[in-house]
């Protein structure tokens, strides 16, 4: 199981009121508590033998911005860095401390997003692999032949969608390995991807189905007999420069340099005394107990 940690803790932060989860001195721990509870549910219901949590060591890599300056530009804080709620920022180190005490592997890489770490692990770790995220871009990692699936948590962990290639085709009309091309055409305001003006999901899917990829679409634009409606031809031609770079921005990196990683999910905390101390200090007794219980009931990896 490959876990998109930022996706989970952002969802936890906005899903649980701060007033419902605080330390004795009033510090919010709603993201920590929600993250741990989601992890416990995933372990209890999916029963993975191996797990890695991926982190954003660079949420807006320079190489993506160089290709497309608008990439996540609307999420840059005035002083630089990502716009993150003030009360979420101090909770991230708490999450990392608890995961370390549990013995669950966490990894990130300079110059890459968590998505890229997940993508690289999805092709380098032996299958089957379940990727857990609420990021639609990770539909592109699905690979039926290797047993790579996306557990999409757009509706929450309790209502996750277990997605294979057929699920992506049913949802978007394109195969998983063409999702990046489709997303580049459609655009994604949350990532600062403008898309092609006037091209929605249905037209994007139709173009990908007919021409295979962006390169095929751009090549067809050079052919007067390619059959584009005049209006669509004009829209695509106007977006030619964007289309030349957008798929590279959307495409998840599969070659991030990562060190050898221990991936076996423990059946008991690596440092139970430290975990107990953290749980007491941050008022996380219930969440840590549920997570430890989930670990204790799973079968060790062979």
TrEMBL record:
One of its GO terms (biological process) is DNA replication, Okazaki fragment processing. Residues 1-266 form the 5'-3' exonuclease domain. Keywords: DNA-binding, Endonuclease, Exonuclease, Hydrolase, Nuclease. One of its GO terms (molecular function) is 5'-3' exonuclease activity. Pfam families: 5_3_exonuc, 5_3_exonuc_N. 5'-3' exonuclease acting preferentially on double-stranded DNA. This is 5'-3' exonuclease.
């Amino acid at each position: 199981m490959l876990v998109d940690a930022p996706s989970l803790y952002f969802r936890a932060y906005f899903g649980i009121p701060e007033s419902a989860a605080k330390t004795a001195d009033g510090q919010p721990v709603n993201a920590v508590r929600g993250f741990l509870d989601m992890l416990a549910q995933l372990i209890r219901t999916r029963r993975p033998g191996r797990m890695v949590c991926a982190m954003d060591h660079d949420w807006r890599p320079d190489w993506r911005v160089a290709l497309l300056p608008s990439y996540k530009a609307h999420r840059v804080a005035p002083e630089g860095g990502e716009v993150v709620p003030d009360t979420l920022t101090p909770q991230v180190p708490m999450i990392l401390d608890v995961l370390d005490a549990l013995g669950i592997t966490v990894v990130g890489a300079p110059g890459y997003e968590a998505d890229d770490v997940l993508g690289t692990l999805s092709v380098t770790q032996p299958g089957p692999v379940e990727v857990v995220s609420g990021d639609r871009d990770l539909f592109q990692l699905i690979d039926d032949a290797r047993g790579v699936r996306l557990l999409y948590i757009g509706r929450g962990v309790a209502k996750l969608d277990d997605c294979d290639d057929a699920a992506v085709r049913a949802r978007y009309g394109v195969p998983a390995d063409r999702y990046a091309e489709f997303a580049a055409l459609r655009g994604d305001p949350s990532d600062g991807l403008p898309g092609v003006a006037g091209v929605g999901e249905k037209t994007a899917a139709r173009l990908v189905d007919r021409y295979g990829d962006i390169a095929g679409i751009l090549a067809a634009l050079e052919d007067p007999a390619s059959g584009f409606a005049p209006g669509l031809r004009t829209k695509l031609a106007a977006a030619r420069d964007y289309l030349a770079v957008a798929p590279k921005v959307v495409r998840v990196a599969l070659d991030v340099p990562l060190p050898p990683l221990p991936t076996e999910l423990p059946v008991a905390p690596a440092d139970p005394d430290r975990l107990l101390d953290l749980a007491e200090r941050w008022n996380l007794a219930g969440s840590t107990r549920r997570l430890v219980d989930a670990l204790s009931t799973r079968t060790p990896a062979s």
